[in-house]
Amino acid sequence: MNQFGGDWTQRKIEIVYDYAKAYLTIMKSYQFKCLYFDGFAGSGNIYNNNLIDIDIIKGAAIRIIEINDPKSFDIYYFVELDEANKLQLEASIKQIAPEKKTHVVCDDCNNRMIKMADYLKANPLVRTLAFIDPYGMSVKWSSIMSLKDLGIDLWILVPTGIGINRLLKRNGEISEAWLNKLEEVLGMTADEIKAYFYKSTTVQTLFGEETFVNKEQNAIQKAGELYKKKLNEVFKFVSNPLELKNSTGSIMYHFMMASNNSAAFKIANDVIKKYKD
Ligand SMILES: C[S@@+](CC[C@H](N)C(=O)[O-])C[C@H]1O[C@@H](n2cnc3c(N)ncnc32)[C@H](O)[C@@H]1O
Questions:
Q1: Do 33 and 77 form a contact (C-beta atoms < 8 A)?
Q2: Whole-model pTM above 0.85?
Q3: Within 6 Å (CB) of ligand 1, which residues are found?
Q4: Is 42 part of any domain?
Q5: Less Cβ around it within 10 Å: N or C end of the chain?
Q6: Range of 71's domain?
Q7: Cα separations (Å) of 202 from 1, 42, 118, 161, 208?
Q8: Is residue 267 part of a domain?
């Protein structure tokens, strides 16, 4: 079962759904096979239990598989690490769309992104819409790098507030485990990360010079800008990131789309604009 995180839970699903419809409208005129890849597929349902009445909304996997107009995807590939979620999703799909060509696998998304990249290299007539929707710091930069030069439109939820910012301790004294995690997710060395997110100031005190290390004030926005810039090293185009905030206005995630196609970039920016605030 997946828990509802806030309004942004619904918004990211609507964005991917709207984008998928526009994507399939364009793809209808081409001979390409269309693959939908969902790297953090969930159980199919999302439960909102912070009210007395429990609401259930459909997760992205179900919303996407229900699309028949303008056309369906030709292949669906769902990855989910939790066995119970995987089984629940598989059962729902069997009920809703038994005729569609679907694969539901229980694995770490990183493994499957690399396998997808190999598959796309061997099948140049396949085009992919991918949705990467982790709760936290699960996506390795090396997995993103594997997608270079491929026909993929990648929507990714980047845990800038909920993940990256939380690991960046205010005084720069980050544990080795946290630094390793930041290096793995950002594809940067510890020194590069520190140089980007911290500034040091040296002041003259009674007992000589002292150097203080302080985290940049706007570390969450800087993390969003950084990830967009890094994605641009792998993909030709990266959309404007959408800030997803919690009920108190804090940024939890930056949501963005990367592609090698200029039309995809334009559509993604239009969809993001529609769902901004
Ligand atoms: C934010 S939820 C996904 C919600 C889903 N996109 C939806 O619309 O319903 C994240 C899901 O990823 C799964 N997960 C966590 N780590 C994972 C990993 N490394 N690889 C694949 N799935 C993972 C969790 O079990 C959870 O179901």
A1: no
A2: yes
A3: 2, 13, 40-42, 46, 59-60, 79-82, 85, 108-109, 133-135, 138
A4: yes
A5: C
A6: 2-168+218-275
A7: 51, 49, 50, 29, 10
A8: yes
